[in-house]
């Protein structure tokens, strides 16, 4: 298997193709076959924050909430379909990696798995 490139995250040599992606069995990293080892040089594209559909998010993007989200300590909920403009990506240790202001609710943090890029 000399055509396999090592994993750009952990350097594992035991990667395998899965459809149009390469998969590392040790760290679970997936990357494009066309990008190969050069994907690590591209920056945070492979490691960036991704939405529910797998699209990479960036600061200033507009996202849409995909399901109703209960707000801890409140009787209100953020309805699915709510658009949130001008997000900021953060390194939230609790999994909340998007900081934003939601109209009618104010500033709060969201998990990227509950939004999609608009």
TrEMBL record:
Alphabetical list of SUPFAM superfamilies matching this protein: Prokaryotic SH3-related domain (SSF82057), Zinc beta-ribbon (SSF57783)
Residue ranges of every copy of the Protein YjdM C-terminal domain listed in the record: 49-117
Residue ranges, annotated region (Disordered): 31-50
The organism of origin for this protein: Acetobacter orientalis
Compositional bias of kind Low complexity: 32-43
Protein YjdM N-terminal domain residues: 6-32
Similarity field: Belongs to the YjdM family.
Protein name: Alkylphosphonate uptake protein PhnA
């Amino acid at each position: 298997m000399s055509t396999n490139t090592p994993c750009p995250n952990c350097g594992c040599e035991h990667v395998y193709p899965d459809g149009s992606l390469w998969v590392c069995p040790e760290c679970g990293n997936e990357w494009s076959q066309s990008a190969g080892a050069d994907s690590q040089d591209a920056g945070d594209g492979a490691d960036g924050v991704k939405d529910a559909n797998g699209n990479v998010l960036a600061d200033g993007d507009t996202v849409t909430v995909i399901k109703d989200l209960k707000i801890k300590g409140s009787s209100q909920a953020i309805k699915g379909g709510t658009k949130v403009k001008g997000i900021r990506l953060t390194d939230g240790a609790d999994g909340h990696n998007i900081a934003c202001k939601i109209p009618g609710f104010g500033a709060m943090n969201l998990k990227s798995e509950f939004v999609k890029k608009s």
